[in-house]
Design brief:
Layout (H helix, E strand, L loop, with lengths): L8 E3 L16 E2 L6 H15 L11 E3 L2 E5 L4 H11 L6 E4 H7 L12 E5 L3 E3 L1 H14 L3 E3 L4 E7 L2 E6 L4 E4 L2 E3 L5 H7 L8 E10 L12 E4 L5 E5 L2 E5 L4 E2 L9 H14 L7 E11 L6 E4 L6 E5 L5 H17 L10 H4 L10
Helix pairs in contact: 1-7
């Protein structure tokens, strides 16, 4: 979004983009995630996902995938609250046990199981690779540069310009430094002499396993508990599942923990009639949250030319078109692009105003 307006150099610490959170996402665009701000950014991003600009991608950026958010008897108040929270952003259908089984025949229903659910028939299964490749294509088209293996070891500002030095000793200079380092964003800020905002990376675990023998799982929806307990969905002929863990972590190449792996399998067996006989694959990724669980997007108050783009908290892919447009508008002075979102909701200076 910046590259049509300015010379952009993207410094990627790893040898490929999307190695960490973007490449380990469940890749769903849905509204049962986050808060009203995240939902508004998601809604604003849908037109781009559904109809990307000419030349952005040779393949669709996603396909329609139903979501099923289910509740036991004691969870019905939470389902009602979620229904009301999502209603301004998506059209939901309330269903009972019969429809739940029609959508996902392995669900436990009735006493001790799901008795009601919300269905969003227009959620989107995103293609994270197509998104990353598309953004890279736009960058190259406008003669921007992607430099991989460029982990920054020092940042300095002199004469209105930032200079970044990488582990290899390469030097890059620019008037504006955008800190889009994910779980490492606070560390980058500290290198720049900018006050950190208190980002907390949290580990999330995913397992894959075979579905029930003889059942075609490919048409099943993305299935989620109304609380932050479990989600599962079909993936490449198998199923993936997460216990929706949020384990505080240092910024790192996240690896799955045995407890969360076992917890994922246990919760699948609690909520469904399936048995997880063998875990085919397991992985983990970090989702980073600002203290108020809203993204931080905007110029720092304490250092000139430093721009925060952090704290997406697991919603980075599904909100990326709208957030990128906001970044470009703030840096180049273009009109604000998302009418339903207020700049102050994202402004990182809000953390400086919080009491100690």
């Amino acid at each position: 979004m910046l590259s049509p307006h300015a010379k952009v150099i993207l410094l990627e610490a790893e040898e490929q983009p999307g190695y960490h959170s973007s490449g380990r996402s469940a890749t769903m665009l849905h509204y049962a995630l986050g808060n009203p701000l995240v939902r508004a950014l998601t809604l604003a991003s849908r037109p781009f996902i559904e109809s990307p600009p000419d030349g952005f991608s040779d393949v669709p950026l996603g396909h329609t995938k139903q979501t099923l958010v289910h509740a036991r008897d004691e969870e019905l108040p939470a389902l009602d609250a979620l229904d009301a929270a999502i209603a301004p952003f998506a059209e939901l259908e309330r269903v009972g046990e019969k429809e739940i089984l029609e959508l996902c025949p392995v669900m436990r229903v009735g006493k001790g199981g799901a008795i009601a659910a919300l269905v969003d028939r227009n959620a989107i299964k995103l293609d994270s690779d197509a998104l990353l490749q598309g953004y890279g294509r736009v960058l190259r088209h406008h003669r921007g540069a992607l430099v991989t293996g460029a982990r920054i070891v020092s940042l300095s500002r002199d004469g209105g310009s930032w200079t970044a030095v990488t582990e290899r000793g390469d030097r890059f200079s620019a008037a504006v430094l955008v800190d889009a380092a994910g779980s490492w964003a606070d560390q980058v800020a500290i290198l720049a002499g900018v006050l950190p905002i208190g980002l907390q990376p949290k580990r999330r675990t995913i397992i894959t396993f075979d579905g029930p023998e003889g059942l075609d799982v490919s048409g099943w929806p993305f299935v989620k508990t109304v609380g932050e307990e479990l989600y599962f969905a079909p993936e490449s002929g198998r199923l993936f599942a997460s216990p929706m863990d949020e384990v505080p972590s240092e910024p790192t190449d996240a690896q799955p923990d045995d407890y969360e792996v076992a917890l994922a399998a246990h919760r699948v067996e609690q909520r469904t009639t399936m048995k997880v006989k063998r875990i085919v694959h397991k992985w983990a990724g970090l989702r980073s949250f600002a203290p108020d669980r809203r993204p931080a997007v905007g110029f720092a108050a304490d250092t000139e030319g430093f721009f925060w783009l952090a704290g997406q908290g697991g919603s980075g892919l599904q909100t990326s078109p709208a957030v990128a447009a906001i970044v470009a508008s703030l840096i180049v002075g273009a009109p604000w692009p998302v009418p339903d979102v207020k700049q102050e909701e994202l402004d990182p200076r809000r953390f400086l105003r919080q009491p100690a």
